[in-house]
Design a protein that fits this description.
heterodimer, A: alpha+beta, 2 domains, three-stranded mixed sheet, 52% helix, elongated, B: 8 helices, 10 strands
Chain lengths: 478, 225
Amino acid sequence: MKIADIFKIAWHNLWNNKSRTLLTVIIVAVVSTLMMTILLFGAAFNENVVDFNKALFKINGTSYSLSGKWTESHNTEDYFIAAEEYRTLVDTAEKYAHVVDTASVSAEVNGGREKDEGGALYISEGNDALPQNNVEFNVWQRNDDVEMLSSSNVVFACFEFFNPAAEDLIYEGRGWSAADAGGNGIWLSVDAAERFVGYYDDPLEVGDTVTLAFVRQSTYFTDFRAEKAVYTVEGIFRPDAFGGETESFKRTECIVGVDSAAEAFGDLFTIRSVSMSYSPPETEYDYNALFSAMRDFADEVNEKIEPNVNNAGDRYPRFVCSFVDSMQMVVLGTVLVFAVASLLSLIVLLLSVGSVANTIVISVDKDRKFLGLMKAMGLKRKGVSRIVICQSLFMIAAGVVLGIAFLYLLRPVVRSAIASFITSMAGMSLPILLSVRVSPLLPVATAAAFFLAAVLFSRGSVDRIARQDAIAAINEVS
Amino acid sequence: MIELRNVDKIYGEGEGAVHALKNVSITIEDGKFTAILGKSGSGKSTLMNIIGALDTPTSGEVFAWGRNLGEMSADELADYRNKTTGFVFQSFYLEPTFTVLDNVAMPLIIAGESRKSREEKAVAVLKKLGLEDKIRKKANELSGGQKQRVSIARALVHDPEIVLADEPTGNLDSQNGAEVMALLRKICESGKSVVLVTHNMEDAKNAENIIDIKDGVAVMRGKTP
């Protein structure tokens, strides 16, 4: 039989059983409305929460962090970043410079003592690095107990705002190892020193030994490149390190290069963590490209460095892009919500499809006489099945279309319900307009699920009708 | 030619089994008008169903133009019915909401013929039967005699080898009955085999060959005097 004739006969059969057909269509419409509402809920949740996080990214940007490798004891307090790992990060970061704005390194120099005894040098190149060993960040400290060569107390040296243009270097920060003999003096600029001194009642004089901590503003990523040839720890300023006297390099605020520190302190120098940040431009940008680059950056670094492994054997990537991480969690969460919505939708379908299939079977059953006569005239089993399936398709398609109309009418209610739910989940008002878009896939998927379920559920009955003998069909007619 | 060899048909099993046909061996000759004559419950409809491949024998063989129907698949039997046989039923079995044209074209629709071709054929056969003015009417708008003529048109539209008519005059008055019998004779004269199932001796007199059937036993006895 030609498809057009199958449609025609299917339509004819449905029309001959108008009330039964209408009942089936209404049941399909109600159930499909419910299914689509649940699925729409899941899809809208997904879309809006993702959009919400994209908006947060636009405002806050992201941070990256490379954490230290745990030692064999798996003690998370005992960790470090190997020099090669740091170098790997720096080299990889250069490749992804378009998604990195600032970087800071938290490192320390243990002056030949046990860590618990203090004696750490903090080199901070950013605003996120936190001091350790009781040195309070953000509070300028003067350590009056410093004894340069033999102190067991914290000897802390800082390097702040080495101004390439400084003419008069006065204060000398001293520190680190007892074996150092004070040879590694750091010269501070006048401006920097005066700023520090301003915090204390007891003014400093030239030649004093001070202990300072400091907070610097953002250190731009260019510092990673610059630090390859910046200051030596001796504090000798080398203008050529900046590639000349250009304004841009003058502005660069690198204190002391990690490489330089590592070279100077050798085994005493330990990098604890590296942090970076990135804020997207205020102009339009390609979110997907940025997200992809941030994710690739994190993945590439993690491929090159060893992960941390706990006693249970669980592996933890050490380089994390906070936004990519949180976005992955968000996506996972929204997928779960969508999966739950789909499951609920499926449950609704399964609970109702029995009655829908039953209605379809009863509707088809009323056509047995006609189908039987057609079988007597040579209609094959598959021909019968096609007509019955076509009837089901008509009813389900009509029901889903009606369901879409119901959904359209209920749209304000659905939108309001979704907004309330997402707002309560987010714990705040959304910074974006809630969008509830109905993808064309939604009704198509609903109709397909309905159709498949209905065909599966009514398969036995349809098969029975298709398989009835020609003589049985004739008897049915009789 | 259709040949039945030692055909038995038993419905049911055990004590309730009904032996509808008993060792039936008959031949339906090509181009002949054959009547199967018997009382109600004698097995004549069962015999017609087996000849028309609507039913299968419990034992024995049925050959239709040399092909053993027992060796055919369900789809092949459906094709056999669709292309080789035309059925005329006592109760017409027209689809009331279809037009006369669609009812007549039904075997061609099932065969998958194009709309143009099948309509041409249906119109041609309806003209032959004097129903050209009823083409667009719904089947339920026709009289009994007209319905049976439409039913005969449906049985002829696909140019079958054999027309099987099961009590075709049973629901008609004598005048319409006579007209239907005349049509069947005409069909036979055009070269087709016609098998008439009837309990009416008068109708059977139109046949060249008569098969008497009683309690499932069939006997060919040639044309009635």
